[in-house]
Write a structure and sequence with these properties.
about 325 residues; alpha/beta
């Protein structure tokens, strides 16, 4: 085995070892080098731990011949040694963009497969390069600490054991084990912001600032995740003593802004705002009711939520 293959197998070992013998796991496989290398490592290491691994490939039906690619992935996984491979066709809605629509459809299909197979974990093949791209996209959007902390290794049922592995290593591993990875045409389409970051921004940063940018961004993401987790925990403890529908402004003003903003956001979502709909501008307007009170009127937020300062308290109501 090459160093790359060993590194990838070592990356998945601790997560499989933490499972119970007889557990079932899913491996999401697109046919690219990252997911194929992951699938190979999971298969080899799961046998040692008496874990049942099932390959899952999602046909997004966004390109002509997508079903042919799905069939190719299924054949590759079976040649690799997978006894069971699931192919799911999904319909991608594009109201929020193709990237977001495809991601939502994919995760919904994976969750449905996990429920059907009673799988305890779903393994995803995101690498350190993906993490670096995610951090840069968060910076470009002006996102907060949580977004800049990138993707978590563990998020509920989902596991990303390759966040410390480079894309070059997954390509090398596929070459070593004789697998021909697929290069998704969308990965070369510069209409997508992630593709521009991958093909233009990161290479330029490497050229102008020196090598190791991706590793540094991934390291920053890990540090920021620790900070975000700590701040979330403090805010959650504060929330247990508060009524989210009636927040005392004097008490909120006494808190650090990082804690206060988390409490305000949680209260707004608890009042009925759709998940992910509250922007920094929304939050700044609500924050002003607490720290820069000048008699402002009620603020209308997504989901019909209205926030108003009344007698020193923030009143949050969901409007019909």
């Amino acid at each position: 085995m090459t160093d790359a293959t060993v590194a990838i197998r070592n990356a998945v070992k601790p997560y499989l070892a933490s499972l119970e013998a007889g557990d079932t796991v899913l491996v999401a496989v697109s046919g690219g080098a990252d997911s194929l290398a992951l699938a190979y490592a999971i298969l080899k290491e799961s046998q040692t731990n008496a874990i049942s691994a099932i390959g899952v490939t999602i046909d997004h039906q966004l390109q002509s011949g997508s079903s042919i690619q799905a069939e190719k992935v299924e054949a590759q996984l079976k040649r690799m040694g997978y006894e069971k491979v699931i192919t799911r066709k999904v319909v991608v809605t594009t109201q929020s963009g193709i990237e977001a629509g495809a991601r939502d459809a994919r995760y919904q299909a994976l969750a449905a497969c996990a429920a059907q197979e009673k799988a305890t974990q779903i393994f995803l093949g995101h690498t350190r390069d993906d993490q670096a791209e995610t951090v840069l996209l968060g910076l470009a959007r002006g996102s907060g600490t949580r977004s800049l902390s990138g993707m978590a290794i563990r998020n509920g049922i989902y596991l990303r054991p390759l966040l410390g592995i480079t894309r070059a290593e997954t390509v090398a591993a596929c070459k070593e084990i004789g697998i021909d990875p697929w290069n998704d045409p969308h990965n070369g389409n510069t209409e997508f912001s992630r593709v521009r970051v991958r093909s233009e921004v990161l290479p330029l940063m490497e050229e102008k600032l020196g090598p190791g940018i991706s590793a540094a961004l991934a390291r920053s993401a890990s540090l920021l995740r620790d900070d975000a987790d700590a701040l979330d925990e403090i805010a959650q403890k504060e929330m247990t003593a508060l009524d989210p529908a009636q927040l005392d402004c004097e008490h909120l003003a006494s808190l650090a802004r990082a804690i206060r903003s988390r409490i305000l956001k949680a209260a707004i979502y608890a009042a009925g705002a759709p998940s992910g709909s509250i922007t920094a501008d929304h939050l700044a307007a609500v924050e002003a009711l607490v720290t820069s009170w000048r008699g402002q009127g009620a603020i209308s937020l997504p989901g019909g939520v209205k926030v108003e300062r009344i007698s020193g308290r923030l009143s949050l109501l969901a409007q019909p």
